[in-house]
Write a structure and sequence with these properties.
alpha+beta, 4-stranded antiparallel beta sheet, homooctamer
Chain lengths: 165, 165, 165, 165, 165, 165, 165, 165
């Protein structure tokens, strides 16, 4: 059984193509629902937190051509606070806490390597509780969270899987 | 000099709050531009690739409560192909190539640990060219790419930095 | 709400002290239940798989004085089969699959270091699919699975935690 | 020469199937010993510490569906004390000290990843002397200490080995 | 389009053979330029920082037969200062800062292993901010910076590449 | 006893400032030697291999703004051949063989991260015998081989050490 | 109770100073035993394998000034054979098998770093079954097996410990 | 040319078999030298430090059946002192300083794993300056320093190499 109804899934899929597609257009494309139904369901999807519709600026087009993963080892007592502070920096586009060797993972965007290095060395590494940083350049991001579509089946059954557009 | 004009930035910021905000509302909020200007600039931002407006489904709300980073070591000749194939799996929400010890980094979402483990062991690890996988559970993602706002200044000057909302 | 009723918990606790304690004795120790109730609940606990009552031989008393953790890296396609085969060896007391750098973890008991080393080098390391083994001596096991009591509260609230006897 | 007599071994084996099997039943199954002999030998096995008969609660049936190995690096002077404290936590099912890179190994059971992560980050990592923790999810335990049977021969002679039931 | 004109490249190539080759000789070897042009262009190349002409002493000929790479992990706040101090030591021939696990990389030359070891242990390791050093002997340097010629094409097109002389 | 006479050392030092300084100027600067002596000694220094005078092109001025260390693990039988082949690539400025975990160390210069990554992934990683590569960006080189001056004393006596100019 | 009688210990200690000390001299130094007793006990110590008296050549005095530890990772099936072959090389002074990450540890002596590197790269690394070697220079050996004296007490009681002469 | 004369080499070889072989017997075995010559040369070999003749107690025969390598990471300023102190412990049979990840390597002998573990944890790990210890059991030492014979040729020419007896 699907966790989301077929019409809802089609609405999400169309909005992944164009987040500002008018409800009338969505209804037309689906073919058998009214604009009003689309509007009602779209609102419900957002209210339930199943989907958000947002602008995503493109770092590369804005001159932030360098992407780097920075892996932090942090004093145990400071993990939560360090992770929270990381979210506040404008050049940080991703922050997570993880189990394993690394405590906090951060993605940084910068205009060149020197800017990324200066940010890691002069800002991150000096935050209280940060023990060690390791920076790795990410030359290519092939799929990002806004490409992730609601799965149609189980992961382990690749035959049932659709293709990313 | 800023890489983006002030009005454009305000448009992007408002659309990051609500990607379907009508142009009239955006114009009203900015206060001194016409709806027509907003529409024109918004279209231009999208055409130039500076910004996209898209739906982003929320894995957690859909029952995909487990997030994991999977780090792959891959035969050199297979890196590009393995990365490309990773993008096709529905339970994969992120794929990148990186310098350093890890060749391809993948983020996987699953309904529980067993599903993630089965996907890594039965699917990823058996793809030709994959030498070794290492899976790390990610209990918290604090900032994601759709929270990243266009920086107002240089990374290394934290005083000039705004706060993430 | 507790996942297990108070009387059941008391039965489990008493059987952790002595797995062969007669139901009459258990009833007497709890104080307000009949032997028949104890017998009924004890059977139900076992049938539901909430608890088993078993003999556990003590390796040390039998001359198996050396305990070692052996960590295996295994060809991805062979993980399940290697783990299964590990369970069949008499000197292996624990086998698990894990995420992370190690694919299969094994605990081995032996009469001396030479026996453990010979088993790892001559038996484990030669099983098809085993890429690499790393053996670590475990001088002390302070708590084992048969010491684990049903938690009375959440892990993160240490104040609510009882002591291991 | 066997380290344990044949009758004793049969008693242990039967009690590994059902720790509460009555002595009369054990005697009947072995076939040529009296119930009194069984009772006498069973008591002696327990008194000498060769075997214990205990209840083992099943974490999964009680809702503790996540098992994790937590590897601790500890200040040298604190190893013994940290290991001892680990034994006291209700969600900890295994504690050992080992030679090698890791000082103390712990197995944690939790209701979900978040509970395990919170326990590691908020409790374990803050204990005095703990330098670093690394957590690995264990999706499958295939053999546990209560499956370990008294070996009939040497480890390195796989032909002489019985199968785990 | 080449980043440097053909005549300039020929001048640089000839000076890489012999940095003191007279301008007249350079002109003669190129064949269609005057000594005056060579002198003018050579001065311009140096003024623009495209090339320097320098003496490079040979450590081996001077008895410094041992070359070692020393990798430093440094307190984040001290990286810049530690790197700067490293440049001042006479037995240090290379200092760089890098992303990744190592913060500062140093190349040391010495008369024998004992001298290198004493320098690392008694001097480098005691500088404030140095957490850890790791020393690796370099038995052969096959290409050094003074062998690097101005590339004639892109790296990834090996067919277009010349040979090092 | 110094491994090199005082006058020779002065000649080398002056040529490290400017490799094309005329012998007359060198003689004038030293103050008590003839131009002819300088010329004789300079030739002897070069013939004996104690010093070379060469042009060193500056990668940064030529648009090669990214410097990266690439560490190679190589099949034992292929180390010598892989190292030799590395020297032939125009974007490779340094090649060494070392003891330790890494077999061959390479420094690569490129116009941007993408070029370096493409060279490592498409060229280096596909050379026969290369098992694994790890690339680290080098944001700053503070001292290079052409800054290394002939030591005036032992490494371990920092008081006796001069400063790099 | 001591594992060795007091007189025997004194004999061993004196022979550790000078392995060719005549029995008469040993008897005289101990003070209350006859030469004949010394001779009898000395023979018995050697026959029982408690002690050997041997010549130990000194590599440094013979020009073998470089000592290196070489750590080998070996195909599991080849460990025993690789270790055995290592013992045959004249420049190898120590060979052991160990648990842990390294399979075989070797100590090599050579006249200079180049000889050690050539031996590791051209000989060891090419032996069938050797996967990877890592070489570490050993600048100082402070205590060697011929300095080890028969302990007078337990290791963990440092107060009871004598000093190495 | 050999670094040691042929007769000296024969004397050393015979004393490696039996360190107390009388000079008359050595002379007889060599065949063309007088006892006096042997005595003279033997004394000279010892005086020049080319060879020592010593008793080597056998740990295994004395009940020290467990051999372990302990690798220490030490505060840089404490390396020399920690290494020196290690030499004083009776259960320590080898101490060296090395370049690379490990600062001080120690070999420990003990009566069982528990004794070795207690020594490492309670004694070594608590010495000031010791940051981290890692202990690896050594099940087999196949060649030790007293088996090392004076090489007859270069290491890299295995054809010229004799066999260890």
């Amino acid at each position: 059984m699907s966790p989301i109804e077929s019409i809802d899934r089609q609405i999400v899929d169309l909005l992944m193509e164009d987040g500002r597609m008018p409800c009338a257009e969505i209804a037309r494309r689906i073919g058998f629902v009214s604009e009003r139904t689309v509007r009602y369901r779209l609102d419900r999807l957002r209210q339930r937190g199943i989907m958000r519709v947002v602008a995503i600026p493109d770092p590369k087009s804005l001159g932030f051509t360098v992407v780097a993963d920075v892996f932090l080892q942090v004093e145990p007592a400071a993990i939560t606070e360090v992770a929270r502070r990381m979210t506040e920096f404008e050049c940080v586009s991703y922050v997570s806490c993880s189990m394993g060797e690394v405590d906090v993972s951060v993605q940084v965007v910068g205009r060149d390597n020197a800017e990324v290095y200066a940010f890691v060395t002069d800002v991150i590494a000096k935050i209280a509780g940060v023990r060690k940083t390791s920076t790795v350049i990410v030359p290519q991001v092939l799929k990002d969270v806004y490409h992730w579509r609601i799965p149609s089946g189980a992961c382990v059954n690749p035959g049932a899987q659709g293709r990313m557009r």
